[in-house]
Amino acid sequence: MNEIEHAIRLRGVVKRFGELTAVDGLDLDVPAGACVGLLGPNGAGKSTTMKALTAQVIADEGELEVLGYRLPGDSKQARAEMGVVPQLDNLDVSLTVEHNLLVFAHLYRVPARDRAAAVFRALAIANLNDRRGAKVDELSGGMRRRLLIARGLLHQPRLLLLDEPTVGLDPQVRQELWALIDRLRSEGVSILMSTHYIEEAERLCDEVTIMSHGRAVATGAPRALIAEHAGPEALEVYGPAGAAARGGGHRPGAGLAHQAHRHLDRRPPRQRRGDLEGVRRAANLEDVFVLLTGEEIA
Amino acid sequence: MAAAAPARRRLGRLERAALRGVMVREVVNYSSFWRSSAFSSTLDPTIYLLAFGFGFGSLVSTVAGYDYIDFVGTGIVATTVLFSGAFPAMYGTFVKYSFQRTYDAILAAPVDTEELVTGEALWIAARTGTYGCVPMLVAVVFGLDPSWGMLLVPFIAALAGFGWAAFGIFVAARAKAIESFSYWQSGVLTPLFLVAGTFFPLDDLPQWAQVLSNANPLYHCVELVRHAVFGLEGWHDVGHLAFLVAFAVVMWRMAIRHMERKLIL
User: Fold this and answer.
1) What is the pLDDT, as a whole number, of residue A255?
2) Is there a domain that residue B21 lies in?
3) Is the pLDDT of residue A84 over 80?
4) Which of A218-227, B105-114, B134-143 has the highest mean pLDDT?
5) Whole-number mean pLDDT of chain B?
6) pTM for the model
7) Has residue B17 been placed in a domain?
8) Looking at the domain assignment, is residue B12 inside a domain?
9) Could you report how far apart the first and last alpha carbons of chain A are, in Å?
10) Which of A69, A103, A138, A153 is best to mutate for the B interface (most B CBs within 10 A)?
11) Hey, where are the domains in chain A?
12) Tens digit of pLDDT for each residue in A41-59?
C-alpha cells in the first residue's frame, strides 16, 4: 500500500456544462485518514465534484488526484480502492440483500476466497443479517441506506465518498449512520462527505469546505471557521411575523412563514447597544455558512 | 504533495475481472426473470414459424428449392436473434441507466464504459445463441431434418446476437425517452425483419430491394444458418460470416462511444 499524504487533492478544477459553470476553480484536500465535509447549497457544485472523483464527470481544467492516482487517466485504480455511496439509491431492487452484496463483491474484485467473508462482514455492517434473503424493495428506507453504505465497504476501501448520506432519514437512523461513520474514521478510512446538514458536518468532520457557486469559499475545522467568520455569538432578530422561537441554535422550525434575520455581533457583550431585540446564542457553523454563501439551508 | 508513489500495476482495458463482474450481475438478475425472458424470446418466433408454416405452407410446398418447413424453420433463427438480442438490449439498457441508475453504481466500481457495454452485449449474445435454436428445434418436430450443421447454429446466432445487442445498446444510448424506440422499431427493425429472406425468398423482389437486402445483417444470418444446416457454400458463406463480424464490431464500437457520451459527463 502506498503511503500518501492526501486521499484527495484537487487544484483549480473547472467543469462546465454548456453555459453553466458547475465547478469553477475548486481546490479541495482530504488529508489521509481525515473526514472532510463538503457543505454548500443546492447547485453549489457538490454533486458534480463527487462525480468527478469517480471520473463519471471529466473536468475541463485542473488537477485531480485520488489516493495518489491522477484522474481521469488512472481513475480505475482509484475506484478499485475507494467506496462510493451515492445520493440516489441504485440498489438492484429485484435482488435479495445478499445478492446485491455478492454482485458488488465481484464488481469490486474481492478475490473468490474472501467473497463470502466480505459479504458476511457487510451484512454485519448494515445490520441486515436476519434480512439477507429479503428483496430490496421489501426493505425500509433506513435499511436500504445501510445496505448502500455496506455495499461501498465490501472491498475495505481506504477512501469513502458519501454523497448526502443521511438525507431523508429519520433521526434515529441518522444517529446509527453517524456511529458507523465514526467507526470507519477510527479505523483510518479517509472520508469525503457532502451534506447540507450543518449539524452533521459539525459533529463528524475534522475539516469542512464550504462551497458556493462552484468554488471553495472557506476551509478549516468547524470550530476554527466559526471563530474566524462568525465570532462567538449570534443574535437572532425575528421578522415582524416571526413569533415562533428557534430552539438553541438548531434548524428553523417547520412551517415558519418568516425566517429569522441573523445578526452576528462580534463585540464583547458589554459594548453592545440594546438596539436589536432578539435571542443571543452561541454562533454555529450554519451562521458561517449563511454569511459566506448568503443562503439559508433548506 | 504526494509522497513517493511506488510502482503499481496499471489496470488495463477490457479486463476479465470487470467483464465478469458485469456478467455476474446479469446472471444473478436473470435467475429472477428467466422464465418470462425465455418465454417471450422464443414463443414469438415459434408463433411466426407455425403461422407461416401452416398458413403459407399450405399454398406452397417448395420455395427456392427447399421444402417450406425447411426454408422457414431455418430462417426463423434470425427472427429469434433479433427479438432476443435487440429488444432486451434496448429496453434493458434504458431501464438500467435511466430508471434504476444501475450504471452509475457499476461505473463507480473499477469498471469502464467499454467493459460495461461489452459485458452486457456478451451476456445477451450468450442468450441469443441459446434462444435462437428453440424455434428451429420446434421445426424439427414438424419435419425439418436434423443435421450436424445445426451444431453451428448457436454460434452463428450468438455472433449475430452480439451485433444486435450492441445495436440495442446504441439505440438506448441515443434515446432521450423510451418512446423514441418506436421509430427504430417501425422504421428500421420491422422492414429488416420482413425483408431478410426468412418467410419468402428475395430472388423475386425488384433489383433495388435485392441490393438493399445485402446490407441487412438479418439476411446474412438467415443465409448462413440455412447453409450451415443444408450444406455450406464456400466463399458465399465466408462473405456472410464476414458481414456479421463487421456488423458486430461496428455496432460494438458505436454502442461504447454513445454510452460514454451518455454516462460520462
Assistant:
1) 31
2) no
3) yes
4) B105-114
5) 88
6) 0.83
7) no
8) no
9) 41
10) A103
11) 1-81+158-230, 92-156, 232-282
12) 888 888 899 999 999 999 9
B20 contacts in chain A (CB < 8 Å): 106
B135 upstream amide cis, omega within 30 of 0: no
Rounded distance between C-alpha atoms, residue A231 and residue B87, angstroms: 63
Q: Quick check: A172 contacting B, CB < 8 Å? A: no
Domain of residue B222: give its range: 34-263
Residue of A nearest to B260 (CA): A56
Q: How far is A101 from chain B (nearest CA, A)?
A: 10
- Overall domain count for chain B: 1
Q: Does the structural domain A1-81+158-230 have CATH classification 3.30.1330.40?
A: no
pLDDT at residue number A295: 63
Contacts of A69 (CB under 8 A, 6+ apart): A75, A77, A78
Q: What is the mean pLDDT of residues B187-194?
A: 86
